[in-house]
Each structure stands twice: as structure tokens, then as C-alpha cells.
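residues and backbone:
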Amino acid sequence: MRTDCISHHIKTDNIEKENRTPELIAELLGIWEASVRASHHFLTEEDIRSISPQAEEAIRQIETLWVTEDDNVRIGFTGIQSGKIEMLFLHPDYFRKGIGRMLVQKAFSEQGVQYVDVNEQNPSAVKFYERMGFRSFRRDGTDDQGNPFPVLRMKI
């Protein structure tokens, strides 16, 4: 992975369901895992292993899947469905370089995104989405799978 400055060769492509090859899904799952390990410190190894199949299925089935590349190297992905960012994961080498902001702004302009759910125990993500204009309107004590990870439901 590149860790120097971000090139001007960042691009994001929409990948239709029929073009989501096993190789692509495996690569995106690797990015997901690296991102989760770097940002979701509340998860145990067992948690990550148990959530991984759900993440894989979400990558396969999400309505809109954007894959972001830097100089033809995949560095992240965004999943959007029904006006909601369902997933936004970047490889940790690309954290805090403006790419997440760019992807959220693209989601606003191209998908009319209004909502996002954020793990309350990931304070950097909560702050990021607040800076993007989201505000929490509900807190649930568990995630959508019933795991004991509080979720903040946020909207613009």
C-alpha cells in the first residue's frame, strides 16, 4: 500500500452485483478487516471472525457498491442502500487523507444519502460523521445482529 501523499489518481467506480467476482469480494473483505482492526478497538478476534461472513454477504448484496482506487490499487469501498451509507471502509494507510470526506460528499450528491449508523464505541467515526453534518437521532444498545455494540443512528 502507498503511504506517502495521496496521488491525483484516486477514482471510484460503481461495481454492479454481477461484476462482484470472488477475487474482488475477497480483496474488499481484506480491506474491511484491516480497517476494522485499526478503528474498531472494542471488537475481539472472535467478534471479527463472527462478523466477517456478514460483511462478505453485505459486500455481495448491497444495492450500490463503490470501489475506490489509488493508482489502480484498491484502497476502500462504500456501500449505499435506500439513502443510507451502510458501509464505508478504507485501508488504514488511507485514513485521514480526505478520501472518506470525498466519498461521503459523493454519496450526498449522487445518491441523496441522508442516514448512517455508527458504532458508538468508534469515537473517531462518530466525530467524522458529525463533521460531515450528521447528527444522532437514536441510540440502540445493540447492533442490527443483536450484538452488544451500541449503535448511533444518524441523519443529516
